[in-house]
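Reopening this one. Same input as before:
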Amino acid sequence: MTEPKLPAFDPRRIAESNTTSYPERFKALNSRRWNRRLGDHVGLKNFGVNLTRIEPGAQTSARHAHSRQDEFIWVIEGEVVLETNEGAQTLRPGMCAGFAAGDGNAHRFVNKTDKDVLLLIVGDRTPFDEVTYPDIDNHAKAGADGKYVHTKKDGTPH
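Same output, byte for byte:
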C-alpha cells in the first residue's frame, strides 16, 4: 500500500509526545499519556486535534476547566473513566463527551484498566484562555500566542 499524500495521512505515523506545559511538580501526573498532534501535522490554526493514548493507571490531565476554549472527546479504543464536577462515569468506544467554554465543569479522563485507551480530542485555540484546576494548586493563563503560563492559584509562581 502506498503512503497517502498530504493533506491525507496515517495518524499512526505521527510521533507521540508526552510533553506538557505543566509546572515541574505536576508533570509526572501526565507522563503516561501520549499525544499525536494530528491538527498540527496538517497546519490547522483554529483548533487542535490530538489522538491521545492513555496507559493503564494514567490520566489525560489534572481535572480542569477552560474559560474560553471548547473541548470535544471521542473514545476510540478501550474503557475510560470520565471524572467531572458531577462525579465519575465509564465511557466505552464510540462514546463522546463535550465541554463548552466557561461551563466550569472540571474534567479529566482516567484509565483504570490494564489496556491502553485511545481518545480523539478536539479543542479550539481561542487566545487568552484561563484554566482552573480544582484539585491541585495550579492556574493557567494563555497569552495571544496561545502559550500557557502556570501559577499557583494565588497568582504566585510555582
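So the earlier flakiness isn't reproducible anymore. For the record, The first strand starts at residue 33 and ends at 37.
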